[in-house]
Structure formats: structure tokens, C-alpha cells
# Entry
Amino acid sequence: MSGVGRALPAFTLRGWSRGDIADPYPVYRRFREVAPVQRADPDGGGPATYYVFSHPGVATVLTSRHCGRSPLPSGPGTAADGLVPGRFATLRDLVDNWLVFLDPPRHTRVRSLLATEFSPAVAAGLRPRIEMIAGDLIAQLRRRSVVDVVAEFAAPLPILVISELLGVAAERREWLRAASTALQEASSSRAAARDDAHDVADAAARRLSEFFAEQLDARRREPGPDLISLLALAQARDAAQRNRAQGETALSDTEIIATCVHLLTAGHETTTNLLAKSVLALLANPDALDELRSDPTLLPGAVDELVRYDSPVQAVSRWVHRDLQVDRHRVPAGSKVVALLGSANRDPARWSDPDRLDLHRPPGPHVGFGMGIHYCLGASLARAEAEIGLRSLLDLLPDVTATPGPVDYADDMIFHGPSRLTVALSA
# Structure
């Protein structure tokens, strides 16, 4: 591992230029070619961080049983360590109960229980409502001459769909979106940009936890056809059937509430980014746009290619619990490792001509939805939203031109996407 990355400056996910945030792939390419695994020493001591850029290396990190979300496989450390300062108790409790931050055996138990109620069949059952929501949003866009695709379509669509999934009343949906956005201020890329980020996120965590606790109590009194009701009913059923000698199997109230918050925060922002970046990619590739318009049956495969081409989540982190070989480099136990999903999805060792958007590209294991035990539980819903959303937008795209000037991107190299995307519609 010694000497890796000497020809390049130390890699970091912070402090990128506006141009590099909008197009990070040339940066990834330079590191992938020269230093596919790069070690960075943290300021003030502590464990080293290893950045992994190649597809084989990222796949190793995501699938290895020796990599986890917590610093140690056992002991006092949790996933919130290093992410949330200890004084923000509500935010820490939420993060420590999000499925994406759990390690086995608890991850295995919680995921198996959630997967039963939040299955691909549930996502399929939502498709008619997704189509109606998308259609209503498109009808409003037709009345405009200039449209912000993010604010007026890509952001409201997933928050409305997730609210539908959770059975949240329509009048609370704007409030939920605002609270969810505030919670995301604690993400590692954004927290560095403002001094009060964790205060804002902790306050949002408190409001959201209280809201979903009330929703859970209401569903116990009067169940409905929504995910919160399904989780409450499953909890009661599993608790009644539990063999105490086998330990706890039912989801706790804390786990249900944390799951609702996580679906809200992670599910809406990633799909927003996917939709917005798909519009950018199609406008920049008019031949692909024409193909989709003439043959909408290409859309399911196109969604996966668009995820590969410009991933809505660019990086995820793990902790190494035992010495690991990553792309022929030794990463020692106790290290933090950051898998660059966006870089892996453009690795020419895995795909030919990876910087080209190819709607006919043979399917392959892109890592846009993760890999291994933490493969995105909501991938089926995200695919349905993207497919239906893009099909609805195709009616507008022939009449759309990008407004002059660069596209504004959020200052975030993890949850990656435009913060604003204005287009002009012809009369």
C-alpha cells in the first residue's frame, strides 16, 4: 500500500470546485488510473481512510463480511460514531436504528422483517398512484414557460409517493419534505458547510420522531392500507408468536419509527437526484432521448443505465473489521474505507466505453443501488418512480431547451445532484 497515490494530491469529498461537482468523472478517472486505492490520514490522528475507485475494489468492499457500518464488529462503537456528535441524542438514536447503518446479526433480523412488508410487490401496487401523481405534476408544468425540473417535478414526485406509501395526509407532505431536507443537513458533505448543521438536523429528527410515533399509535387504533399499518400489524403478530427462548424477533417501536424517517429522507432525495440527472443526461444525448420517445419499452433498462451513468449516490463508507485485500492493496483492520460508487460505475475494466450513455448496454452489476447485504431495500420503488417519472417527462422533453448557464449542484459529493435545473418550454 505504501506509495499508492504519490502522483496525486490527497483525495477528499469536500471542497470541490463547482465544475468538478457537476462532472466528477474526470477526477475519478485520474485517481482510478493512478491510485485505485488511496490512503488518507485524518487530521488530528485516528484511523486512516482508504478511498476505493475501481469496480472490483468497490464490489469487494460492499460484499465483504469483514466490512461493516460500525467501527468494530462488537463493543461500544456504533455507526453514529464519527457521524453525529454525542450531544445530539435524538439524531444519534435515529441513525443507529436505520437499516443502512446496522450490522449483522441485527441487520439480518430487521431487514428480513422489513422486506416482508416492503416488498417489490408493494412497489408494484403503487404504480397506478405514481402514474396519477406524475400526471398531475406534468399537467401543472404544461402551463409554464420556464420550469425548474427539480423543484417542480423531481423533488415533489418521490415525496408524494413516499407519503402515499406511509399513509401520510396530503396537508402534511410539504412539512415532511422540509423536515426531511433539514435532517439531511447532517450528512458528512453538508455538515462541514454550516456550523449549525447538527443542531438543525437534531431538531428535525425530534419533530419527525414525534410525528411518526403519533402515526404509529393512530394505525394501531385504526389500521389502513399503508406501510405503517403493515409494520404495526406485523409487530403485533410477531410479538404474539414470539418464542422468548429464541430472543426478540418483532420490530420495536423505535425501529419502525426510524424506518419511516429513513424511507422519507433517503428515498426522496436519491430519487430526486436520479430524475434530475436523467433529464440532464437525455438532454445532452438527444439520440438516446429520441430512442426513448420512439420506443418506451426501453425505459426499464434505461433506468439502470442512467443510474450507472450518473449515480444519485456517489459514495458510501464502511469500517474494516479484519485486514482486507482491496484491488491488490492491503487495508488494515480498524480503517475506514470509502467506496466511490460513481467511479466504479465508470470503470472501463468493467464496461466498454463507460462514459457513453448506451440504452442498449447489456445489463451488468452496477453499484448505483449498492451491493451485498446493504443492497437498497427500496430499489424496486426507485425504479418504478424513475421509469414512470421519465415516461411522463418524455411528453415535455421535445419542447424543452436548457436555459443558458451552468446547472447549479448541491455542495454534496455523496447525495449528488442538481439543486436547481431550469428549462424553457416552447409555446
